[in-house]
Every structure is written in C-alpha cells, then in structure tokens.
Amino acid sequence: MREVNKKRMIFLLVVGIILSIFTISAAAEWGIIMYPRSKTTIRAKRSVKSKVKGQLNAGQPVKADFLRDSWYAVFKVTETRRSEARALGYVLASRLQGPGSNAPGAPSHEEKSSGGVPSKKTEMESLLVDIKNITFKIVEDGKECIFIEFDRFYTPAISTIQGKEPRIVLDVTNVSSFRKEWAVINVGGKLIRQIRSSLNPQTRVARIVLDMETSKDYYVNPVFYEKENTYSLEVFEEKKIQTP
To answer: How far, in Å, CA of 183 to CA of 14, rounded?
Structure first.
C-alpha cells in the first residue's frame, strides 16, 4: 500500500470548497468552469437581497449554468447531475469569468460614470495577455510557490499529469510575448523540481509545466493577488496523520 501511495498525487484546492484539481481539468459536458475575479457572495436566490449561502474566493473554480436575469447557478466542479436543485446558490454573472476572459453576459471593465450603466464593450476577450514575470519562492511552513505576473487579471487553466513523471500544467492563452529564460527554471525544491515553459507561436498558448517530486503527496492552493495582477500556486506536502 505504501508503494501505491508514493505513486499517487492528491491535489486539493483549499478555497472553502475542497475539490480535486484533476477533476477541474476534466469538466463535465454541461456547465462552464468559471472563476470570480475577487471574493464573491453566493446567494440563495437571484437577488442581492436574498440570504447569503457562502462565499467564493478569487480564482476559485465553480461550474456555472442556468444563466437567467444576469445570475448564474453555481455548482461544485465535481457535480455530475445537471439539476438546479443541486446548486450551491447563485452568483452575479458580472462577478464570474472563464479562464483568461470575461464571463459571458458580464459587463466590460469600462463603465459610464452616471448610474453605473455599462458603456460600449471593450475587446477584452480578444486582447493579448502579457506575462511579465515567472518566479519561484519558498514561503512559510515550507510552501513552494510559483508566481506568474500578468498585465491584467488572468487565471490560467490548470490540469495535472500523474504517473511516473507527475506534473502540474498551466495554460495561458493569447500570450503577447515570452522570454527565453523561462524555458527551464531549476528550482531544486523538495516538492517542485523544476519549471519548464514554452510558447506555441501558432496558437499563442504558453504552457507552464511544474515537474513534481514523485515520492511525495501534495496539496495545491491557487491564489490571485488582484492589486499585483499576480497568479500564484502554493504547493505543500500532505501531512500524514499519526495513529496511536
């Protein structure tokens, strides 16, 4: 059993609702995987006056569906049944966005000053995103973090590869430029061995790969620092529970 445990990787998204990152990357056929730009309230009904049922943190993925009256019903990304009765609650569409783009039905960032009425939509969805920096740091409690600084709010798509060479994969679309020095970053961490990055010039998709240590189990916590336009992945080791 110990040998089997060494070969597996457990990814836990610690953002109020605990879920598997592997499941996030394999979304079901219904709904849209979306993310709040900042901390967002989940309501019991499609109204800002309705009861608060919970909160979403910035960058926390949920499955969104049943868009009506500018409100989405939101679900755990692991939810397999398309039933509004199984929703966590409701979130304003303007508070959610898909990976790297504005949410469908959401207003643009530019708004008229009078009455908060949205002005003509910007072309935010088609704008290129600039990766300004990729860095690695070890922070408190031995957490190993990758920081990706953008020129605007952006949350990469996350997927995982398990097996003999476990990896965490981040995809960034519509990338404007890419530095050669990011191709290989040898970090030498206890959890993250190295970071490899590349840009596909045809699709403009940048892929950032974290090569992970094979003999450990991990948790991963994504965080977005809105003021700095910086997306971070905190990786830390699963603590084993000692039985008496």
So the answer is: 29
